[in-house]
Amino acid sequence: MFRVLKQLSWFFKEQKKRYVIAISLLLVVSIFELTPALLIGRAVDAFQRGALSLSYASTLIVILLAVILISYGLSYIWMRQLFGGAFILERQLRSRFMKHLFQMDPPFYERRKTGDLLARGTNDMKAISMTAGFGILTLIDSIMFMAIILIAMTWLIDWRLTLAAVAPLPIIAITVTILGNMIHTRFTKAQEAFGDLNDRVLESVAGMRVIRAFRSERKDEAQFENKSLDVYNRYIQVARIESFFDPIITVVVGLSYVIGLGYGAFLVFNQQLTLGQIVTFNIYLGMLIWPMFAIGELVNIMQRGSASYERVNETLSVSKSVSLPSNELVASLPVRLKDYSFSYPNSSVNQLQQIDLTVHKGTTIGIVGKTGSGKSTLVKQFLKYYPPGNEGLLFGNHSANDLSQEAIRQLVGYVPQDHVLLSKTVKENILIAANDTSNTHLHQVIHTAAFDQDLAFLPNGLDTLVGENGVSLSGGQKQRISIARALAKNPELLILDDSLSAVDAKTEARIVENIQRDRSNQTTIITSHRMSAVEHADEIIVLENGTIKERGTHETLLKQGGWYAEQVQNQTSQDKEAMS
Fold first, then answer.
1. What's the rounded Cα separation, in Å, for the pair 419 and 92?
2. What is the per-residue pLDDT for 307?
3. DSSP string of 505-573?
4. Over the stretch 367-379, which tens digit does the pLDDT of each residue have?
5. How does pLDDT run across 34-84, given as a tens digit for each residue?
6. Which domains does the chain show, CATH number per domain?
7. DSSP labels, 285-305
8. Sign of the CA dihedral 436, 440, 441, 445?
């Protein structure tokens, strides 16, 4: 049950001063809380003897008020320290969790659902935070505060009466052991179901246009209802186990009261205890109710916290697929692939085979081929998304294995096929990687990406919010914003991975012409299904099943009469038919 405390020992050591102050003051306040019952018992005995004078009563009242005020002040301090520590833990774990997610490679996200990661970063973090705050409180109250009360009952009243009254307590210990393990197992399954529900919601929101286009709203609602019902049922299973605690504790408390009152009355009748003592004892017995309930809360919180910490730690313990070199080497051009082969981590076959390619500074490389020929796989090698296939990938004079991802990506500006925009303004999306860009440069990259023609139609121009993942924009507008974003970085190597597919031929020609002009002395790699996007390239390579089948300039490939020449002829015919 206390495994989570051991798991969080690093944090308690780090915040040792805070928790020592909190626990010490909590114990002091617990001792002070015994005073009112003792004063009431003294007042009852004094009244019974006829010795309750005004001065004596006034003294008792003053002492009582002083104890209340001191307890209030000390309670403020320990609560601030204890629950403040819980918030610090939650903040640290969330920051570590997000930092870890930023460091992870594509293979990590390929094996995990977004909704589950979201659940671990929200619900699980809150459960762990509860452990470091309310969990410590219930731990102290269920063990230390109970011990303080039992010591007071034994020392100040009568050990025989105390022993008889607490005889039913082992029932709670047995119940806690049995139910605690059941809560741990069921809560873990409930959190997993909640992660699946999150993932379902994210997919529905992201794919809302597709759902509406195919009139699948009712089907999606039914799927969501099934997921939601599954989460509900799993949490109900947790609640059913938790619901056993209160009745059992109520029964135990009731038994303690019956034994305490019955045996206490017997001792009073036999003049072994005074009436004031039995009143004080019963008040102490009433004060035991919360520590007994705290045992149930303690088990619940600790088991939830342990299950959540294991889920979060499972994510944090995953190592990067790509190694992190300790050196500070700088990546530079040219980029060379020598007899380079590559396969994805979970694949048994090579997606790229024996690639020989040199990307010189100031050149433009075009990469074309059938769908699935390996175009995107090839350009992703220049970003080190995956562990390099062999030693044949060089940036300048350094192997990709010896360069950090950060060093490589400082060299590269990448426009992927899937254009991800943040829920910010157009301007903020463009300047993600170049916040210090001047307005002149900003408008220049917008012009290069041919997005200037769209600004007049946006309600607030560059300050227009694009919505969730650019939902308010067309596919072509999102592509051009992505191109402008990469250009704003002014990279030495610009990679356009089929990034002109959503624009018309006229806009495509304008973008290509602008890039040729504005990046005449810089390096560009373009992958495309349209041959017109790469015909100006210094070298064009044709991929087929991960190997280079054709290579050369536009004119050279036309003369060869291969696949490239056929595609140029077909696409030219289609363009003429579209214009006629």
1. 31
2. 87
3. HHHHHHHHHHHHHHTTTSEEEEE-SSGGGTTT-SEEEEEETTEEEEEE-HHHHHHHTSHHHHHHHHHHH
4. 999 988 999 999 9
5. 888 888 888 877 777 777 778 888 888 898 899 889 999 999 999 999 999
6. 3-316 (1.20.1560.10), 335-579 (3.40.50.300)
7. HHHTHHHHHHHHHHHHHHHHH
8. positive
pLDDT at 95: 93
Contact 503, 474 (CB under 8 A): no
Tell me whether the omega of the peptide bond preceding residue 334 falls within 30 degrees of 0, making it cis.
Answer: yes
Partners of residue 543 on adjacent β-strands: 369, 548
Q: What is the pLDDT of residues 438-495, one digit of tens each?
A: 888 888 999 999 998 888 888 888 888 887 777 778 888 889 999 999 999 889 999 9
What pTM does this model have? 0.75
The pLDDT value recorded for residue 99 is: 92
Confirm if 342 and 377 have CB atoms less than 8 A apart.
yes
Nearest CA among 26, 58, 23, 25 for reference residue 43 = 58
Question: Tokens in use for 465?
Answer: 């919010």
Owner of token pair 């296939």: 389
Tell me the C-alpha distance between 176 and 326, whole Å.
49
Q: Using 50, 70 and 90 to split pLDDT, how confident is the model at 577?
A: low
Three-state SS for 364? strand
Provide the pLDDT confidence category of residue 149 given band limits of 50, 70 and 90: confident
Who's near 433: CB < 8 A, 6+ residues apart?
Answer: 485, 488, 489
Strands 335-342 and 352-359: antiparallel
The one-letter code for the residue type at 243 is S
Nearest to 526 by CA among 351, 350, 354, 359: 359
How many other C-beta atoms lie within 10 A of the C-beta of residue 409? Answer: 19
pLDDT confidence of residue 567? 92
Q: Are strands 547-552 and 539-544 parallel, antiparallel or unpaired?
A: antiparallel
Q: Which amino acid, 201?
A: V
Mean pLDDT of the chain: 86
* φ and ψ of 352, to 5 deg: -125, 140
Token pair in block for residue 6: 């051991």
User: Which amino acid, 96?
Assistant: R
Contact 19, 85 (CB under 8 A): yes
What is the C-alpha to C-alpha distance for residues 23 and 484, in angstroms, rounded to an integer?
56
| Overall size of the chain counted in residues | 580
Angle at 431 between CA 427 and CA 436, to 5 degrees: 115
Please tell me the distance from the alpha carbon of residue 172 to that of residue 151, in angstroms, as a whole number: 19
Residues 6+ apart with CB under 8 A from 463: 425, 426, 427
C-alpha pair distances (Å), 280 with each of 156, 160, 164, 328: 9, 15, 16, 72
Q: Which pLDDT does position 1 carry in this prediction?
A: 60
542 within 8 A of 551, measured Cβ to Cβ: yes
